[in-house]
Every structure is written in structure tokens, then in C-alpha cells.
Amino acid sequence: MTGTIRNYLSRTGYASLSPKAVLFDMDGVCYDSMPYHAVAWQQSMAHFGITMTADDAYATEGARGIDTVRRMVKEQRGEEITLEEAQTMYDLKSELFHNMKPEPPVMPGILELMEQIDAAGLRIGIVTGSGQRPLIARLMNDFGRFLTEEHIVTAYDVTRGKPAPDPYLRGLEKMGDLQPCEAMVVENAPLGVEAGVAARIFTIAVNTGPLPDEVLWSRGADIVLRRMTDLSERWREIYETTKH
Predict the structure, then answer these.
(1) Of 238, 161, 160, nearest to 203 (Cα)?
(2) How far is CA 194 from CA 9, 21, 34, 102, 172, in A?
(3) Is 147 in contact with 43 (CB distance < 8 Å)?
């Protein structure tokens, strides 16, 4: 771990890594929800004559939904649709997702991890490409003892979504105008890892989906683990190393 942090400091130019907050992605990190999203994407886009595979859903995970819609339409139809048109298409995807039963379960290990982070005195934030109110309400219901709504960044807080650094930079602002070396990111998606790295934040990737680990390493992740329970078990080691 010491070498991993040394590599981060060399890459970013910071003198130390002194985390005061941890910024979590939502889908695939807080909730085991990506299989649900993949189905909703495929069904909704097919309604508009666009082919989207499960692999496409995982590869574009973390981006703003309207950005994904516009990109898929551009690739398959060669058309530049408006934000309003993209929002209409994304609204159908959101409706399909929210009507799925049962609700996606809380990711195993995430509550235990947040308990450790909270006990260490660090703040917790959520940075998601989603913006639906039902999701925000569920976050507060499931994680409200660790989280305040003011510490949630949604698609509507930024004009550029992941893989741009903007969502995580906004997260730093919401957590108290922190410097990148004062936070950690926990992600599962390639675009999210890119965003965390672009924001110069120490980025931990937990590969809860079907993509090879190498995809996450190639996007610049500082650590790649297989399960959220692995991160929960190794949290003490990771956090203690930052103090040396």
C-alpha cells in the first residue's frame, strides 16, 4: 500500500494523501443495481429503434443518462438530438428501471465500510450520474446515518458528466471545498474511474460488474478490488497507510 500511495503522490504532485472524505459512486457501488439498469437501457432504447447491449450499459455506466442517449443516437443514426429529446428517451429508461421489482439490493459490504469510515471521522458523499428523486430518497433512507442530502452530487449539479472530472470536483466543493488529496473515490465503472483520476483524487475501483479488471487499471485506478466486502476488510490497512 505504501508504494501505491507513493505512486499517487508522484502522479499528482501532492506532498501527502490526507483523506477527510470518501466519495462513492451509487450504482454498482452502493447498490447492486447494474443488472437492472442494463435491462432498462436495452428495453428503452429498443423502443426508439436504438440497439444497446448489456456491455454497452456497463461501458457507459457513470455518464449522465442524457449524454449516453445522445451518444448512442449519434453513433447509430448519425443525428445530433437535442437535450430535450434525449431527456424524453432517458425518462422512459428511468420509468422502466423504477418499475422493476424487487428493488436493487444494497451492495454487500457497503454499510460495514461506511461504518468504519464514519468511525474514523471522515465525511461521506455520493457522486452519481443519476438525478431521479426516488433514488435520492432511497439513498437517504438506506444511508442517512452517514450522509446528508447536501453531500450528494447528481447529474443536475454539473453540465459535464463522467468521465470529465466535474462531478468529483463538485463533490469536493460540497464536502467543504476540499483539495483532491483530501479525499478518496470509490468507483466500479471505467468512466467513473476516469473522472476520479482526472480530478486528481485517489481512486479505488471495485469491480462489481462483468468487465475485466484490466479495464479499470487501464483507466488509472490506484487500487482494483473484486468485491465491496474486500474493500471493507482492507479499509483499515488502506486508511492507516495514509497516516504514515
Answers:
(1) 238
(2) 17, 19, 18, 31, 16
(3) no
Measured between alpha carbons, how far is 212 from 164 in angstroms, rounded to an integer? 22
Q: 50: closest CA among 73, 80, 70? A: 73
Contacts of 233 (CB under 8 A, 6+ apart): none
Distance CA 69, CA 239 (A): 38
Mean pLDDT by runs of 10 across the 244 residues of the chain is 92 96 95 88 95 87 86 94 93 88 92 98 94 81 95 92 96 97 96 97 94 94 97 96 80
All three cell numbers of 158, joined, read 454539473
CA distances to 10, 38, 188, 214 from 3, in Å: 10, 37, 22, 19
